[in-house]
Amino acid sequence: MVDPISLQPRTQEAIGQATQAARARPKMPLDLLQDVARRLQFVCVVVFGLSFANIFISNLTGVPVNRSVRIVVFLVVWLVTAATFYIARKGNLSAEWLLRIGMAFEVFVAAAISVLIVELTWFAGERVGILWSGVAVWVILYPMVVPNSPKATLITAIIAASTEPLAVFAFAAAGIGQLPEAQIFLRYLWPNAVAVVLAALMSGVIYQLGQKLSRAREMGSYKLENKLGEGGMGEVWKGTHRLLARPAAVKLISPDRLGADTAAAEKALRRFEREAQATSQLRSPHTIGIYDFGLSRDGTFYYVMEMLDGLDLQSLVDDHGTQTDERVVHILRQACHSLYEAHLGGLIHRDIKPGNLFLCRYGVDLDFVKVLDFGIVKQQEVAGPAGAQLTAVDMIAGTPAFLPPEMGLAEQHVDGRADLYSLGCVGYWLLTGQLLFEGMNAMATIVSHIHDEPEPISTRAGRQVHSGLEALIMRCLAKKPDDRPQDARDLYRLLGELDIAGKWTDERAAEWWEKNRPKAG
User: Fold this and answer.
1) Were both Cys, which of 156, 191, 204, 206 would link to 147 (CB 3.0–4.6 Å)?
2) Per the domain annotation, does 190 fall within a domain?
3) Do 190 and 235 belong to one domain?
């Protein structure tokens, strides 16, 4: 296994600055943000050119128009366009503010177009030219030149497309014309509705392409290929090193997942950073390996892990049912190997659950266990409120279905025996296919862990489980830490002393993997 790299700790001040920088940016791909000023300037130049061309064409064709109204409209358009061009050119505003100004400019130009075309196309008896008005064309073209998020594009397009019917009502109220019949009204406006839909769809496509390009470009030396999964704090992508062609799993946390305020975001960032730092210090082959860690220019935190071929224990039971006693011993002993090293270093995982234990092919070995996601790991020497703040923000750390009683009680001193309780819950799940306690909600489940005695494994499994294994797992599930095995090495030893230890052979493992998880190709 490639040794995990050593990472230099970030200071709290640096994390705070990274948080503010990340949250100051809009939720847009970096590649689209970089050209906002230039794109907005280009749109302004186009508007200038088209407005002058419109005056010239009107004079040549002799189309009857209210020249005083047109002159006023064009003067206002030139003034606003010049101001927008100057703001974009000066470069004092952030991309976020330029996007907002661009949204206002899109609506303004749509309103100007509406004023210019309404008298001619709505009150002249027959609409001149094709049914697609200038407003509809503008609504489609603007977001293609100045992309925004799909939501912002949709809202702006709806407002811009609505300026034409609003202008019709305004002209009618001023006595310049009469409102057309409903059939004519709908006939003239359906292109605007289509334009709004097209603008939103195209914006979504452009946004996704820009997002993929930004991710592929920004995550250090790794190119992201496809998403493997998503959780509450981030996404996991398959990545490939640009030079080594080494596959990896890249975990991302984007700025919008960091919390509702700066303080919450900083806590989340510290939690994420601790996950990478804590895991990088561990050398057990049964702990997921870390290759790289960093912060992209758009504020996305990432770290790169070794790519695993297999499935987690949650999927193992969901897809293949409960497991044999000897295989459960084989799995739990390997998890103890990882946890023992972590506990020796003063690190407690605090979120041991089936989803964080991965069963994989590892070189020539099968049924090889990897412990994942040290995201809420706690250093034993950090006690009290300061330590508690480095866990999940404003909530009890861990997963309720696998939460040890002392964590449910929010006790200040929690040691490695908390992980052994959670590992006992995992063993219970593997043997019975059921959670130890299932309350009506998370709090009810936590209360059960604190007060209720678990039902015997054999009763829940509907079969006779090996008595020694059952007794050992039930011992791990003791309410008091002193009644459990005293450390992961002790549990590793006790599991190895069972007469079924070693009976899950390489041959049995190979047979299972060949039948249930054949290699691709």
Assistant:
1) 206
2) yes
3) no
pLDDT of residue 387: 34
What's residue 168's pLDDT? 81
Mean per-residue pLDDT for 103-129? 75
Looking at residue 25, what is its pLDDT? 45
Q: Give the pLDDT confidence score for residue 103 in this predicted structure.
A: 92
Distance CA 456, CA 446 (A): 19
Phi then psi for residue 106, to 5 deg, are: -60, -45
> Active-site residue among 292, 325, 351, 373?
351
351 in catalytic set: yes
| Least confident stretch, 81-90, 162-171, 504-513 | 162-171
Chain centroid to Cα 109, Å, comes to 36
Rounded percentage of the chain residues whose pLDDT exceeds 90: 40
Contacts for 404 with CB less than 8 Å, ≥ 6 apart: 398, 414, 417, 418, 421, 422, 449, 481
* 319 and 243 in a common domain: no
In-domain check, residue 274: yes
Do 337 and 357 belong to one domain? yes
Domain boundary among 189, 215, 241: 215
- What is the tally of structural domains in the chain? 3
Report phi then psi at 27, rounded to 5.
-80, 65
Structure tokens at 143: 């977001």
Say if residues 305 and 288 touch (Cβ distance below 8 Å). yes
Residue 7 lies in a domain: no
Are 386 and 365 part of one and the same domain? yes
pLDDT band at 377 (very low <50, low <70, confident <90, very high): low
Supply φ then ψ for residue 175, to 5 degrees.
Answer: 80, 15
Strand partners, 295: 301
Two tokens, residue 403: 């939460």
Gap between the Cα atoms of 369 and 494, Å rounded: 18
CATH code where residue 290 lies:
3.30.200.20
Phi-psi region of 299 (alpha: psi -120 to 50; beta: other; left: phi over 0): left
* Tens of pLDDT, residues 21-69: 444 444 555 555 557 888 899 999 999 888 887 776 665 444 445 566 7
Residue type, 492: Y
Whole-structure pTM value:
0.61
Together in a domain, 281 and 413: no
Three-state helix/strand/coil letters over 342-406:
HHHCCEECCCCCHHHEEEEEECCEEEEEEECCCCCCEECCCCHHHHHCCCCCCCCCCCHHHCCHH
Distance CA 432, CA 328 (A): 11
